[in-house]
Design goal:
The complex is a heterodimer of chains A (321) and B (306).
Chain A lengths: L1 E10 L3 E12 L6 H11 L19 E4 L2 E4 L5 H6 L6 E4 L6 E3 L2 E2 L1 H11 L26 H4 L6 H5 L1 H5 L5 H12 L7 H8 L13 H5 L6 H14 L5 H17 L4 H9 L4 H16 L16 H14 L1
Parallel strand pairs in A: 1-5
Antiparallel strand pairs in A: 1-2, 3-4, 3-5, 6-7
Chain B lengths: L8 E6 L9 H14 L1 E4 L16 H18 L2 E4 L2 H13 L3 H12 L12 E3 H9 L1 H7 L8 E4 L9 H4 L5 H4 L2 H8 L3 E3 L17 H17 L4 E4 L2 H9 L1 H8 L7 E3 H9 L16 H6 L9
Parallel strand pairs in B: 1-2, 1-3, 3-4, 5-6, 5-7, 7-8
Classes of the chains: A alpha+beta (321), B alpha/beta (306).
């Protein structure tokens, strides 16, 4: 099968202009994109740079952009990419969220490792074991097994909608790693970690849009892991004040009324004593009010018929700890 | 069968908080459009159901609340119809977890038994958009159009939860109907669906509290991209997206220092306009961004009997 690849090339020394070079290769039906790249480098162009290692989807090294979408090159069939090619060639580019260093090699330090380092991804045990290893009773680490499968391929970050507008956001990959240590029962710095993750550009900038989960090739569900971090933080009251107010007000109004009191949520998120914040709400509240779009808060927010049952469910949950 | 020959489809109606709070125009539009389409919305079956949790409440408490809602619809023998992507997404995720028999038994025993309820795991939850495409049918919708959208370029804006997680929201058996449901409805109404970069992305609403700058950048990017592609209006099946796209558009203009002026419709409003309802009946006067330009394009003012 003859296929064409359009590779976005860049050589920091000889070619400051980023150009696209087209290669034609004869590949087998079952070949993966990485197989084809290795073949092109061996047979046609030894200067072509890309990352690749295990060739079995295990190491997460060969992440790149194939036809505009993030992909693991050794898990992407050439045939499928060829069928999906729009301009007569499979388009290959480095990951979009990062700086191109050479050809398909992106800057992993900026993109990954600095963010991973920021979440301090190592367990700090409560007490070093007296001898041997720190043992966790069977089953106590079941919730961690998914996040431990992460190969740091970076596809979740590639899909993240927040990183598009703000590259300083810590991103789902590092947050999934953070979950792995925060939720480890051996760790002694849970609260401290949740506080740190709550700093600006941290976990509260996540929109829960599920792009990260959609992009994860290992089904780790990074979005759910970020939900879990948020849950832990709210229980420990570790988030930024406005966020904690928001979550608590949401829960309090559903618990009391059976459904959300949006007017109350807006006021309590800012905080009663935060005059500046409340004043900021005013213009939109007035505009919406004039259009008949302003929900009435507190006593004017009717209780739903089943509110006692909702309250009972909340109390039952709270009593479970 | 109803008098006009349509198959009557009955649902346990779950309007959600926002359609009765920040977006009352949506609720009123749904009730009228549903009646026109012959959907029977039973508003008694779930009248005592609670909030889905919207991704804010912990799953530990929202799963029991949602299981309770599912149990009530199951007892009434009805499918649930939502009109909010967020309600739909959160419920579908809870529904998926509750397929696990052990987990469902725990929820039934610890939370629902006291009220005499039991969820058996059979409830179906369907957004109005899916109900229109899957239960009602696009051809039938097309045949009911009285005021075609005349090729008006309209951007479909799904929001997050109608599309993701894909294995739950657009499973294989529904790939045909759900992948392009919103585009297909726009086209059936006579409009032209225009692909924009924000079509399946987050609108930015969930991070208004934690990072307003990023939220406004996202909103600005999505609406400005639509504008650059010649789009005249956007349409969304999610009232939270509407609160952002319409309600916060002025702030995004300030953030981007650029005029946007992009009218945004709730899905049932756009359907309603094409079926002949007046802008007043669809409550367009309640939007913060004026929809007058669209009304003029469609020559509204001329009487059409709905």
């Amino acid at each position: 099968m003859e296929v064409k690849f359009a590779v976005k090339r860049y050589d920091p020394i000889t070619n400051a202009d980023k150009s696209t070079q087209t290669y034609t290769a004869e590949v087998d039906e079952g070949d993966m994109v990485l197989d084809a790249l290795l073949q092109i480098r061996d047979e046609q162009d030894p200067t072509l740079a890309f990352r690749g290692s295990c060739r079995t989807g295990f190491c997460g090294d060969c992440t790149m952009t194939v036809n505009g979408k993030g992909a693991i090159a050794c898990r992407t069939k050439v045939k499928k990419a060829w069928d999906g090619a729009e301009d007569g060639a499979i388009e290959l580019e480095p990951l979009k969220m990062s700086r191109q260093m050479k050809d398909l090699v992106y800057n992993a330090r900026e993109f990954h490792w600095n963010k991973f380092r920021a979440v301090e991804p190592w367990v700090d045990p409560v007490q070093p074991p007296e001898k041997g290893e720190h043992l966790v009773p069977g089953g106590h680490d079941k919730h961690l097994t998914e996040s431990m499968r992460c190969t740091q391929c970076g596809l979740c970050d590639q899909g993240c909608t927040v990183l598009v507008v703000d590259k300083t956001f810590v991103g789902p990959a590092a947050l999934t790693k953070a979950y792995r240590v925060v939720a480890d029962e051996r760790d002694s710095r849970k609260r401290q970690r949740l506080d740190k993750l709550s700093l600006p550009r941290g976990m509260w900038d996540c929109t829960h849009c599920f792009e990260a989960s959609e992009h994860c090739p290992k089904y780790i569900e990074p979005t759910d892991r970020i939900f879990d971090l948020h849950d832990m933080a709210i229980k420990a009251e570790a988030g930024p004040p406005k966020v904690v107010h928001h979550y608590k007000s949401f829960a309090a109004s559903v618990k009391a009324h059976g459904w959300l009191d949006e007017g109350r949520l807006a006021i309590e998120t800012e905080g009663f004593t935060n005059v500046k914040g409340l004043m900021k709400l005013l213009p939109l509240a007035v505009k919406a009010g004039l259009k008949g779009k302003h929900p009435m808060p507190y006593m004017l927010h009717k209780k739903r018929p089943g509110h006692e049952q909702i309250k009972r469910i909340f109390e039952k949950w709270e009593s479970k700890g | 069968m109803t008098t006009n020959g349509q198959v009557k489809t009955k649902y346990a109606f779950y309007p959600g908080c926002v359609s009765k709070g920040g977006c009352p125009e949506l609720y009123e539009a749904v009730v009228q459009v549903a009646e026109k389409l012959g959907f029977e919305l039973d508003d008694k079956a779930l009248e005592s159901a609670g909030c889905t949790g919207a991704g804010v409440l912990s799953k530990e408490v929202s799963d029991p609340i949602n299981a309770r809602t599912f149990a009530m619809a199951e007892a009434a023998g009805l499918e649930i119809m939502t009109i909010c992507s967020t309600c739909q997404g959160i419920m579908t995720q809870a529904h998926h977890r509750l397929k696990d028999e052990e987990y469902r038994a725990m929820i039934n025993r610890d939370f629902l038994a006291e009220e005499g309820l039991e969820y058996k795991g059979t409830t179906v939850i369907r957004h109005m958009l899916w109900a229109i495409v899957e239960d009602f049918g696009l051809d039938k919708l097309k045949s009911m159009v009285k005021r075609p959208l005349n090729g008006l370029p309209i951007a479909h804006f799904y929001g997050c939860y109608m599309k993701r997680p894909p294995e739950l929201m657009v499973p294989k058996e529904f790939a045909k109907t759900r992948k392009t449901a919103l585009e297909d409805v726009i086209e059936a109404l006579g409009g032209k669906a225009v692909k924009t970069s924000g079509r399946g992305k987050c609108c930015g609403f969930p991070i208004l509290t934690s990072n307003e700058d990023n939220s406004m950048a996202m909103l600005g990017d999505h609406t400005l991209d639509a504008k650059a592609k010649g789009v005249k209006a956007m349409v969304t099946p999610c009232p939270l997206c509407h609160l952002q796209l319409d309600g916060k558009q002025a702030d995004a203009e300030a953030h981007k220092q650029e005029e946007i002026d992009m009218p945004v419709f709730h899905l049932p409003q756009l359907v309603g306009l094409a079926l002949g309802f007046t802008p007043k009946e669809m409550n367009l006067q309640r939007h913060l961004v004026s929809t007058k330009s669209i009304e003029e394009e469609l020559g509204i003012g001329v009487e059409v009997k709905a």
